[in-house]
Amino acid sequence: MNASPSSPLGTSRRAAPVAEPLRRHVASLLAARKPGFALPGAFFTDEALYAAELEYIFGRHWLFVACEPEIPEGGDYRTFQIGPWPIFIVRRDDGSIGAFHNTCRHRGSRILQQDSGIAGATLQCPYHRWTYDLDGRVIDCGATGEAPAAQRPLKPVHVKTLAGLVFVCLADEPPDDFDDMARRVTPYLAPHGLARAKVAKQVDIIEHGNWKLTIENNRECFHCAGHPELLCSLFHFFGEIDEQRMSAPERAAYARYQSARQETEAIWRRLGLPWQCIEELHGRPTAFRTERLVLDGAGESMTADTRVASRRLLGDLSDARLGSLHYHTQPNAWFHFLSDHVLSFATLPLERGRTLVRSTWLVHADAQEGRDYDLEKLTSVWNATNSQDAAFVEETQRGASSPAYEPGPIAANEYMVELFHVWYEERLRAELEL
Ligand code: FES
Ligand SMILES: [Fe+2]
């Protein structure tokens, strides 16, 4: 596929031609993928494919990396390692966010060496003390001489914010469809006032599986019987519903779902909150899905008792019973926006078989722990769910790495797994011109 940058399947501009053996190798692996079936084992075990994914998926697409409240004040920064690229984001005093390669223009040291911190008004490389301003300009290079250094600002990384979410793109020319996504999704997310929230808790876990298994696992709830805590609040009716084939408990849950749906939809309507599903999980580089969903029980939050964990609601929201606004972005993130808190999940590959999953719980900036929210109540459901998911991913990595593994059929309620595969293949074909 050889598409222009402005087409829906457009490829971002590449710096160098793709080596022919790599193109042939990836093409042969993609040819082995059977639509409607799980991915062949090589997709989880092949190192050359993993290297291609880092360059052409993670190096060329918009990636969610942080929520704005993670860097609330001027000088606050966060660092990330995306494949071979160390980068950082930093809040400037005017409130804007800069993103740069975290590679010194002198002899290459990482400049910011902690996961997060406060840089102040300038950034100084600890090695020979080259100093940069927050626009990346060299403002002091000690004995090395000013003139050549002035030509060597930090290399910028593209950065965009969307209703308090921070996305970066490492491509020289990023996919040009981000703004379209932002325009359509912002009315859903903005009422939750994420930019005026604060981080209540952040937990990093490492899943011992390929990043695609982490994403696949997130894109279906076929496995949700393995999440008893989550099922207190989550209705898992996705895709086609066939009432005839439901068990008695499922039919009871479906009846609860239908009545909760009616009641909650009336609240959304009254508050002017959009809820209709937008699903564009393939057919574009910056693919996404959003939908406001009703929750079981009291319908307020993803907590064990289904009631809000923080009594200080987000933004200017006035009703606790808003269900859960889901938002997914390919290739690396998913979110739940509730009335009282936001949950963000960012995944980044660490190695072919190791994936970072960063979960962040955010509440209103004025909410006080102990008075307005209890951290254990806020985090317990997703802490449990994350560790259950990590086990699913690890066991699938181990089982699917066996020479005896054969991909099985994807069920109707796993259709978003299939759409992730479709997107993944589209993007590799576009970027590698296959
Ligand atoms: S490598 Fe950064 S100042 Fe020398
Ligand atoms: Fe799960």
What features would you describe in this structure?
The strands form four sheets. The chain has a seven-stranded antiparallel beta sheet with strand order 11-17-16-15-14-13-12, sandwiched between helices. It has a four-stranded antiparallel beta sheet with strand order 4-3-2-5, with no helix packed on it. The chain is α+β, with helices and mostly antiparallel strands and 434 residues long. The chain has nine helices and 17 strands. It folds into three domains: 20-59 and 428-432, no CATH class; 63-159, Rieske Iron-sulfur Protein; 191-419, Naphthalene 1,2-dioxygenase Alpha Subunit, Chain A, domain 1. The N and C termini lie close together (5 Å). Helices cover 28% and strands 23% of the residues. Bound molecules: FE2/S2 (inorganic) cluster and fe (ii) ion. Residues 104, 106-109, 125, 127-130 line the site of FE2/S2 (inorganic) cluster (FES).
